[in-house]
Amino acid sequence: MNKVQLFQQIQKKHSYLCVGLDTDLSKIPAHLLGLEDPVFEFNRQIIDATKEYAVAYKPNIAFYEALGPKGWESLAKTLEYIPNDIFTIADAKRGDIGNTSKLYAKAFFETMNFDSITVAPYMGEDSVTPFLEFDGKWVILLAHTSNTGSNDFQLLTDRETGQAFYEKVILKSQKWASSDQLMFVVGATRADKIERIRELAPDNFFLVPGVGAQGGSLEDVSKYGLNKECGLLVNSSRGIIYSSNGEDFAEAANREALKIREDMSIYLDKYM
Amino acid sequence: MNKVQLFQQIQKKHSYLCVGLDTDLSKIPAHLLGLEDPVFEFNRQIIDATKEYAVAYKPNIAFYEALGPKGWESLAKTLEYIPNDIFTIADAKRGDIGNTSKLYAKAFFETMNFDSITVAPYMGEDSVTPFLEFDGKWVILLAHTSNTGSNDFQLLTDRETGQAFYEKVILKSQKWASSDQLMFVVGATRADKIERIRELAPDNFFLVPGVGAQGGSLEDVSKYGLNKECGLLVNSSRGIIYSSNGEDFAEAANREALKIREDMSIYLDKYM
User: Fold this and answer.
1) Would you name the residues of B annotated as active-site residues?
2) Is the pLDDT of residue A32 over 90?
3) Would you kindly state where each structural domain of chain B is located, as residue ranges?
4) A203-239 burial string, b = 16+ CB within 10 Å, else e?
5) Is the N or the C terminus of chain B less surrounded, counting Cβ atoms within 10 Å?
């Protein structure tokens, strides 16, 4: 999916909601556990319940990998079930030396058919560029994450330029790819930083986790982050998919997604 | 496996060789391709041919992941086949926020039974510590890697302390775990840096890729990197496993592994 198509989706749905499919057997409703593939069944119903309001789905790969080969099958079925006009993100945070990154790219872009993958920048250019060789596929590079440990290294200040490490990542990586193929992960708990990051990357989409359960404010993120093509995908995982763990989990997810979409619709008018 | 047991292995075999199982269907001998599980069959024969000289095996997970669920089955069978007294490394370069890192840890330490996993440090403490909660399991943290892109970010100098980013990683992470659970990835192409890194982390094991195909010198690595408990696992992948792509691939791998072991045996006497 290209940037124009993504923006069309956003305009059509008045939403920049990404639903995180962090599907955990210990958290899904008990009545699903007897089924042959409870993970897929849960995802299927969540997708049906939220696809009207979601412009992206983001399975965090750890949840599937933890289940062994069966988890990968649930993931593949889930990906196939997501409607084609919705953007898909493999939240895998991969990154390795060149020929190995290429294999990860192959795993997520060819063996599976994700639109994008999250990538860790630590190993530098030749760990990132192999993902960019796939037409129409996106890299979503970790920039400033939403966890407390993000302060350990991402905020170090470079002696030469006075830039923070995460700023170096944002600036340098823009030489490797245009905003048609490169997004950044920017935590919503960093609303104070989003204005600055928008200056550094005016045209790139940001994938923003940390709204809701992790405490970030959707209005702040939107106010400082929206650009002329929206430029935001705001993720909610637990707040939507686990808002009920009874038989009504899908209806509850529908209600939560709608609530967020209503706010987003307002912010699109107000701040974009 | 603990540090004492690892050092015993090294002393018994006069070797600190790690064999990288980067098993690629496009590179393994043609006569294996008709078998039901060519990846496992290749690994099985490589393990049989090298286990006398190898103290560790390191499958790079990308190679298995690229094959989908079948790849994970080949990986699981390979791991089971490796003798219990040989150290196993999941070269996965994972790292995510706390509860998600825990799932990755579960995938590699419980669903599978690896001794260790490589982890990327970008997201900081709470992305690394979940891996440390598993008794007898190791984190091998990326510090200074062997690829050209490693210069992009790892060498940035922190304004406050004058330390390079990779040095910060080495220093800070030692507060999270002792050398009984924490190793570092240090590229062999950085022999000039190994002396410095050994000063920063006198007791930790280093996993050293980049000898051979990537051009690093085993003697330099050994001279500057060996400590009183060896402290090195030097990896060779392509140089051993693809030294022949004929029916004699296992014998060829045996010869290459022996050659490296002979050098290592000399360096252990000379530099340890």
Assistant:
1) 93
2) yes
3) 3-249+257-271
4) ebbbbbbbbbebebebebbbebbbbebbbbbbbbbeb
5) C
Predicted complex ipTM exceeds 0.90: yes
Top-level class of domain B3-249+257-271: alpha beta
DSSP E strands in chain B: the ranges are 17-20, 54-58, 87-94, 116-119, 138-144, 182-186, 206-208, 232-236
A123 vs B145: CB contact, 8 Å cut-off? yes
Residue A216, phi then psi, degrees to nearest 5? -75, 155
CA distance A48 to A245: 17
Locate the chain A residue with the closest alpha carbon to B162.
A159
Radius of gyration of chain A, Cα coordinates, nearest whole angstrom: 18
DSSP bridge partners of B17: B54, B234
- DSSP 8-class letter at B15: -
CA distance B254 to B42: 13
Q: What's the CA angle centered on B270, arms B268 and B271, to 5 degrees?
A: 70
- Distance between CA atoms of residues B213 and A195, nearest Å: 45
How close B134 gets to chain A, by Cα (Å)?
A: 15
Beta pairing, strands B206-208 & B232-236: parallel
CB contact under 8 A, A147 and B98: yes
DSSP-derived letter for residue B129 is G
Please report which confidence band the pLDDT of residue A213 belongs to, taking 50, 70 and 90 as the band edges. Answer: low
A-to-B residue pairs, Cβ atoms closer than 8 angstroms: 188
Task: Round to whole Å and give the CA distance between A66 and B119.
Answer: 16
Specify the DSSP element, H or E, that contains A192: helix A191-200
* Pair A40, A217: CB distance under 8 Å: no
What integer best gives the mean pLDDT of chain A? 95
Would you give the DSSP letter of residue A108? I
Which of these ranges, A38-47, A113-122, A188-197, has the smallest mean pLDDT? A188-197
